[in-house]
């Protein structure tokens, strides 16, 4: 008996390349979307994360594209490792889309892909690019890129300063502490403090050289407790919130998304994920103390959370989260911050 089913001939309508980038190599997966809305995988390959590897990657991709169709290259924002290949593809007129790690992770889970390998991650990105109309990557502002390099270097200097202070204290309280070691540590400390001052001045000059950026900064710096270094770090780490479209994405990107642990009669601890950008969380630590002291809305939030949890640090983390969202809203809307009332001091802050 002959089958009544007829094979339907399909034609590709879109090419998608998913690039999973690590320090040493780039895993690439090639998918097509046909006119029946079916995604098919047609190949994968690995290339070195070098200029030579970029050229080989582009040649391989061009060979895979048999027809002139819309072609997208999907990358995950993985620290700094993806930046060179993203710029290389952009400079060669390729349509590049960069997605946040949490978005790529959730999409992969929706496909039922429980294992995690470089090739699987590349496939997930390629399939996402084929199925979705992802926004094309807009290259970050040059000033913001410079600020990110500067503020990260400053963060390293502050970490080194803390280490030296701890070692210096240990030597000073040691019974037979070496005078030479103490002298050398004090010299190192003095040098680092001088370098931090120079970095702070460089941040100020970099912002002031860009009139548009300075105007936007001034609107947000009206928040009492938020300084130039804090704001420069947040804006540069998010590329001016270019990949952020809502508050949930922002809190997840910064690691402030809430993880609950409750099932049936069991109620565990509620915490933040801490799986996002640690530079943002670190720089918001001290401003949280200051805005609670000087800004009424944050003082009220601190009071409410502390009354409910009896844990000060949870209250301060809630303040950090709200402060980040406020900065995001002011930046996106281009509005000036206005305090709701006169500064107050939270009673629990001094308890």
Describe this structure in words.
One of its GO terms (molecular function) is DNA binding. This is Transposase for IS1663. Residues 18-170 form the Transposase IS110-like N-terminal domain. Residues 182-216 form a coiled coil. InterPro entries: Transp_IS110-like_N, Transpos_IS110, Transposase_20. By secondary structure, this protein is α/β, with parallel strands linked by helices. It folds into 3 domains: 12-131, 2-Layer Sandwich (Nucleotidyltransferase, domain 5); 140-209; 210-351, no CATH class. Helix content is 54%, strand content 14%. It is built from 13 helices and 9 strands. The protein has helices spanning 51-64, 83-91, 101-110, 118-131, 142-173, 179-209, 211-220, 228-237, 247-253, 278-283, 285-294, 296-309, 312-333, and strands at 12-21, 25-34, 39-48, 71-76, 95-99, 258-259, 262-263, 266-267, 271-272. The protein has a 5-stranded mixed sheet with strand order 3-2-1-4-5. The chain has a two-stranded antiparallel ribbon with strand order 6-9. The protein has a two-stranded antiparallel ribbon with strand order 7-8. Mean pLDDT is 88; it is low at 343-351.
């Amino acid at each position: 008996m002959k089958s009544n089913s007829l094979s339907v001939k399909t034609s590709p309508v879109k090419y998608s390349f998913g690039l999973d980038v690590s320090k040493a190599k780039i895993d690439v997966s090639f998918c097509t979307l046909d006119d029946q809305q079916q995604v098919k995988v047609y190949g994968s390959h690995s290339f070195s994360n070098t200029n030579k590897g970029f050229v080989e990657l582009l040649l391989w991709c061009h060979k895979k594209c048999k027809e002139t169709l819309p072609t997208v290259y999907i990358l995950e924002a993985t620290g700094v490792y993806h930046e060179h290949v993203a710029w290389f593809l952009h400079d060669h007129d390729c349509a590049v889309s960069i997605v946040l790690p949490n978005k790529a992770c959730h999409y992969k889970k929706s496909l039922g892909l429980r294992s995690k390998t470089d090739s699987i991650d590349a496939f997930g990105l390629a399939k996402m690019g084929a199925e979705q109309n992802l926004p094309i990557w807009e290259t970050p502002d040059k000033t913001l890129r410079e600020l990110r390099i500067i503020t990260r270097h400053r963060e390293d200097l502050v970490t080194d300063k803390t280490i030296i202070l701890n070692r210096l204290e240990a030597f000073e309280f040691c019974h037979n502490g070496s005078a030479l070691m103490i002298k050398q540590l004090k010299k190192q400390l003095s040098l680092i403090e001088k370098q931090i001052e120079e970095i702070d001045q460089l941040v100020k000059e970099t912002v002031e050289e860009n009139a548009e950026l300075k105007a936007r900064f001034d609107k947000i710096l009206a928040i009492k407790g938020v300084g130039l270094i804090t704001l420069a770090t947040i804006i540069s780490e998010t590329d001016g919130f270019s990949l952020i479209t809502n508050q949930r994405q922002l809190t997840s990107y910064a690691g402030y998304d809430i993880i609950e642990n409750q099932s049936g009669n069991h109620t565990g601890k509620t915490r933040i994920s801490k799986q996002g950008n640690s530079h943002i969380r670190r720089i918001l630590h001290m401003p949280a103390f200051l805005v609670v002291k000087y800004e009424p809305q944050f003082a009220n939030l601190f009071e409410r959370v502390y009354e409910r949890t009896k844990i000060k640090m949870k209250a301060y983390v809630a303040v950090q989260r709200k402060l980040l969202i406020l900065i995001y809203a002011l930046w996106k809307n281009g509005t000036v911050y206005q305090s709701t009332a006169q500064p107050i001091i939270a009673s629990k802050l001094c308890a």
